[in-house]
Write a structure and sequence with these properties.
97 residues; 0% strand
């Protein structure tokens, strides 16, 4: 699923549809879950999120901000996507560090 979303992200719909956010954030969310569940030295969710956010470029944030916020649903992947979405949007308002 994450690979399909990554490939589809090149074809994001020009309309501001919240479903498009999954194409941007589902791959990174899967990375967070994988880092939490790895057999050797698993990371806590906050540490895994911090690690993944270190790879996000300004261009990704610029595209993300064109779309509405992701809605939290009961599924774990959606919850992680919501956390990533909130952090990226919050951090984007602070400017370069």
């Amino acid at each position: 699923m994450a690979a399909g979303d990554a490939a589809a992200s090149a074809y994001l719909h020009p309309l501001a549809d919240g479903a498009q956010v999954g194409h941007i954030l589902r791959g990174p969310a899967h990375c967070v879950l994988a880092q939490q569940r790895r057999a050797v030295e698993p990371l806590t969710r906050p540490d895994a999120i911090e690690n993944v956010l270190g790879y996000v470029t300004a261009q990704v944030i610029e595209v993300l901000l064109r779309y509405p916020r992701v809605r939290h649903r009961g599924r774990e992947i959606a919850s992680v996507m919501g956390e990533l979405d909130a952090r990226l949007r919050r951090d984007s308002t602070r400017g370069p560090q």
